[in-house]
């Protein structure tokens, strides 16, 4: 393949992923035909890059995860557990607000059970560190483990995002509820 064709193919693939993200951010559950039309490519071109919608969504999830991890973990979290958990939740919420495709359940509907932990691993590193410090200081909620708390905090974040996406909560209220719930859930 010539250099020009490779560049065109890369541009098409990037445009397809961008089109999928735009449609998801608009609250749609797009078919591959919808995505191809939005990207301005034929379905044949789309299928040359992605055999299935789930393959395309996996690429988008991977890209968004890297962006989110960079934004959430860009600077160290406060050492004090309450402040560290609150800051992690606040950063996470800002990222959710800035990336509306993350609010669309269609993006994740194809993923297997258990994939959630793998998807979030690059994002939850800072939270795990804060929770380990809290555990060492005897501050965790009674009977809770770090792993369980990470899953529980993610679930609360998904619930808050779901309320925002459904229009039942404003962004600020959902973010504040997430931040408060994360701290209350984790610490005794």
Automatic annotation (TrEMBL):
Q: What is this protein called?
A: HTH tetR-type domain-containing protein
Q: Pfam families, from UniProt?
A: TetR_N
Organism field: Kribbella karoonensis
Q: Which InterPro entries match?
A: Homeodomain-like_sf, HTH-type_TetR-like_transc_reg, HTH_TetR
Q: Which residues mediate DNA binding here?
A: 31-50
- Keywords attached to this entry: DNA-binding, Transcription, Transcription regulation
HTH tetR-type domain: residues covered: 10-68
Top-level taxon of origin: Bacteria
């Amino acid at each position: 393949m010539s250099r020009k064709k490779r560049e065109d193919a890369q541009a098409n693939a990037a445009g397809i992923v961008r089109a999928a993200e735009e449609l998801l951010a608009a609250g749609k559950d797009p078919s591959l035909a919808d995505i191809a039309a939005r990207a301005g490519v034929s379905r044949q071109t789309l299928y040359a890059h992605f055999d299935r919608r789930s393959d395309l969504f996996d690429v988008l999830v991977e890209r968004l995860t890297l962006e989110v991890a960079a934004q959430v973990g860009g600077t160290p979290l406060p050492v004090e557990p309450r402040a560290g958990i609150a800051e992690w939740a606040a950063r996470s919420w800002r990222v959710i607000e800035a990336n509306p495709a993350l609010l669309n359940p269609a993006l994740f509907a194809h993923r297997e059970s258990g994939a959630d932990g793998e998807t979030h691993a690059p994002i939850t590193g800072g939270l795990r560190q804060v929770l380990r410090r809290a555990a060492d200081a005897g501050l965790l909620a009674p009977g809770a483990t770090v792993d369980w708390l990470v899953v529980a905090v993610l679930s609360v974040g998904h619930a808050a995002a779901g309320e925002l996406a459904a229009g039942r909560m404003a962004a600020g209220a959902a973010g504040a509820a997430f931040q408060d719930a994360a701290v209350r859930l984790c610490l005794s």
